[in-house]
Amino acid sequence: MPLAIDLVLIDCVDLDAMTAFWCQALDLEHVWTGPSGGHLLAAGHGSGRRLALMPTDDVKTSKNRVHFDLRPDGDQQTEVRRLEGLGARRIDIGQVDVRSSMRAPDASRPR
Question: Options 3.40.50.150, 3.30.360.10, 3.10.180.10, 3.10.620.30; which CATH number does 8-56+75-103 get?
């Protein structure tokens, strides 16, 4: 039997800000706070999509080993502007195609 990804867990310095960002960005709801203070976010419409956020004091100092490739339902630039309004920032990673690379608004990453 193959495995399925149950959820992705992200360490973050500003747990409340990241919870608000990801809930709005991915249409998730904060459904549970764990004993160590982490937040479980889940889709309210039964799709099974889940994301977990874990508080940390560790400041990120190196490249992420995992990233999300997100696909909007509608116009990409409209979605990019919406995410910018939520606090995400465009970043230049040398991409040469039509994709936009963005950084979520977490204080754990140096600006």
Answer: 3.10.180.10
